[in-house]
Design a protein that fits this description.
The chain has 426 residues and is mostly helical. The protein has a single domain, classed as MFS general substrate transporter like domains (Growth Hormone, Chain: A, Up-down Bundle). A two-stranded antiparallel sheet has the order 1-2.
């Protein structure tokens, strides 16, 4: 019997699952971050404060974060094909209904439904990981995670749709695209491999036993920055560059895309690096460079008066738009590497709890995308300094770097029986 055919079929299924899941996640992410563009016009129409705007753009992120852990468990129990399709259809309906919201409370309620699209990540990583051996999971999940580029799709395309037909048309078109993708996905991908899906069902609460490990929560904090801050900035930057540099919405979307694109597509490269050199090294680079970038972007326009040998000299220091684009591109690039590195840990350390652990890490990371935009708005209202958002991110990334370094040093001083591979992937 020719055994090459089953092997070729399995490889073909894995490839099809990976690429269709990635395309689906791209569309889900485009829907999830839709308020980064239409929220600007809604803010103007409804006369919202900076804090109210932060709550608006963050509300879908809240739903998408909270449902991730449940959707991850459901994917373990019922399979990725079914749960992924149902998630896309539910988000499509909510996004279509958003077009008919007229008041701030109505928009917030609709935004909660739109946020279901963000839960697709927990479904996708669980579904995709089942088709790949451990040695290739970092690369596969990195490619899948590049679907974050959906944020850039919204920034590049939505402004022109909004200017042509208004923000309700953006919601309707995005909803239609997601519904079509859901149908195509259902008829194009296989069910989860029969030999991988659990033979016996655990109780719902037993699915979460791995969450008692402090290590899981440390991974979650890393992801709170690498992913949560990415989502927050993806939502906030169009408004930021309009406020700081006085640009129109189309140009603001393009500049914000300079952050979203590298913060998304290089995630696949982050997966490859995590497979080759270990996730720990990737995380050190991610957090270190991100701290430097956030520190630079934290500098507000400053007038200096220096007393020199020839008397007083005035100087003005400010981050111009070109410098801003370069630094934010670098920040996005290293965030993308970090996102992949975090998720390299999960199937390695918790192969039987990928759904629950991946769902929790994704939920905490997503909550960063909800909490941080609100914090950005509050800081703007309280301080009147646009750069205060990057000041907050600098403190966050330093906390992540400090905890990671202390934890690794403790492991290195730990018992000799700790597996060597622990230090390669931590």
């Amino acid at each position: 019997m020719d055994q090459s055919k089953p092997r070729q079929q399995a490889e073909g299924d894995a490839t099809r699952v990976l690429w269709l899941s990635t395309v689906a996640f791209t569309l889900c992410f485009a829907v999830w971050t839709i308020f980064s563009i239409i929220g600007i016009q809604i803010k103007q129409e409804l006369g919202l404060s900076e804090t109210e705007f932060g709550l608006l753009v963050g509300t879908p992120i809240l739903t998408g974060s909270l449902v991730r852990i449940v959707l991850g468990v459901w994917t373990d129990r019922y399979g990725g094909r079914l749960v992924y399709t149902a998630t896309m259809l539910a988000a499509s309906v909510a996004t279509f209904l958003l077009a008919y919201a007229k008041t701030y409370p109505e928009v917030l309620i609709a935004a909660l439904g739109v946020g279901v699209a963000g839960g697709s990540f927990a479904v996708g990583i669980t579904y995709v990981s089942r088709f790949y051996p451990q040695a290739k999971q970092g690369t596969a999940l990195g490619i899948f995670g590049a679907g974050n580029v959906g944020a850039a799709v919204t920034k590049f395309v939505a402004p022109f749709v909004l200017l042509a037909w208004g923000w309700p048309a953006v919601a309707q078109i995005w909803a239609l695209a997601l519904a079509v993708m859901a149908i195509a996905f259902w008829f194009s991908v296989p069910d989860d491999p029969a030999d991988i899906r659990p033979k016996a069902q655990k109780s719902f609460f037993a699915e979460f036993t791995a969450l008692k490990h402090i290590q899981v929560w440390r991974f979650s904090l890393y992801y709170f920055f690498a992913f949560g801050a990415f989502v927050a900035l993806a939502l906030w930057l169009p408004r930021y560059v309009i406020g700081v540099y006085g640009l129109d919405i189309a140009t603001a979307g393009i500049i914000a895309g300079a952050f979203s694109v590298p913060a998304s597509i290089f995630r696949a490269y982050g997966g490859i690096l995590s497979d080759r050199v270990g996730a720990r090294s990737v995380m050190y680079w991610t957090l270190g460079v991100s701290a430097a970038a956030c520190l630079i972007l934290s500098l507000p326009p400053t007038n200096l008066l220096v007393t020199g040998m020839s008397g007083r000299m005035a100087a003005h220091v400010e981050i111009g738009p070109i410098t801003f684009v370069v630094v934010v591109f670098i920040l996005g690039f290293f965030m993308s590497l970090g996102k992949a590195a975090v998720y390299k840990h999960i199937p390695t350390y918790y192969p039987n709890d990928v759904g629950a652990v991946g769902g929790l890490v994704g939920m905490i990371g997503g909550l960063g995308g909800f909490i941080l935009p609100i914090a950005f708005g509050v800081l703007n209202d309280l301080t009147g300094i646009w750069q205060s958002c990057f000041m907050l991110l600098f403190l966050l990334v330093m906390a992540c770097l400090g905890w990671m370094h202390v934890a690794i040093r403790r492991m290195e001083r730990g018992p000799a029986e700790v597996p060597a591979e622990t230090f390669a992937t931590q």
